[in-house]
């Protein structure tokens, strides 16, 4: 059972906006920044969002992140078929541990 | 551009020690700007941070694995290594090496990953 909670699945149609949520606690999301990773099938995770809402170079601005209290969200606008992947949130926990969410599998219908 | 490559045995027997190495290219492993880390992913499951090492050798580990984990760095070989002792089938996973900036805990460069199976 993961420290950060994500719904196991999400879906949307091409062009739609979808949101993936991540719930934590005061010791992780509540006091540290949140990062998001995209994992395409059979590949290593890729950093998508860091420090709550920053995009690394090369990540399209269709992807955006936000944080409020002990929860965070990843939004994907203009959904594309290539966005079909697993998405993981992650944050440092004040118990001196790095924690990940269980992942959300995004299906593009 | 930093590149990472994991290497090591793909099969380890129960109770033995899993040993993996990550070779760094395209940059300096002696940089004071990064931590060098290991993350694993059991088949069909999520990600788990194992631990990280600084170029100076200082380490921090996932508390749930701390008693079995050793991560070290060899700057002369541009490598850092993972040792996980007393493995069981639950340690079967794809193991990734990755880099995080010193100032924050996120991983912006990843190796391709290597599958390690624990089985007799």
Quick recap of the structure?
With 109 residues, chain A is an all-beta fold. Chain A has strands at 9-12, 18-23, 34-39, 46-49, 63-68, 71-76, 85-93, 97-100, 104-108.
Global Rg of chain A: 13 Å
Estimate the global geometry of chain A from the Cα principal axes. Answer: globular
How large is the count of helical segments of chain B?
A: 0
Helix-strand string of chain B:
EEEEEEEEEEE
Oligomer: heterodimer
Overall shape of chain B? globular
Q: What structural class do you assign from the helix and strand content of chain B?
A: mainly beta
Low-confidence stretches of chain A: none
Q: How would a textbook summarize the main sheet of chain A?
A: 6 strands, mixed
- How many runs of DSSP E, i.e. beta strands of chain A? 9
Mean pLDDT of chain A: 97
What composes the largest sheet of chain B? 7 strands, mixed
SSE arrangement:
The complex is a heterodimer of chains A (109) and B (120).
Chain A: E1 9-12, E2 18-23, E3 34-39, E4 46-49, E5 63-68, E6 71-76, E7 85-93, E8 97-100, E9 104-108
Parallel strand pairs in A: 1-9
Antiparallel strand pairs in A: 2-6, 3-4, 3-7, 5-6, 7-8, 7-9
Chain B: E1 3-7, E2 11-12, E3 18-25, E4 34-41, E5 48-54, E6 59-61, E7 69-74, E8 79-84, E9 93-101, E10 109-110, E11 114-118
Parallel strand pairs in B: 2-11
Antiparallel strand pairs in B: 1-3, 3-8, 4-5, 4-9, 5-6, 7-8, 9-10, 9-11
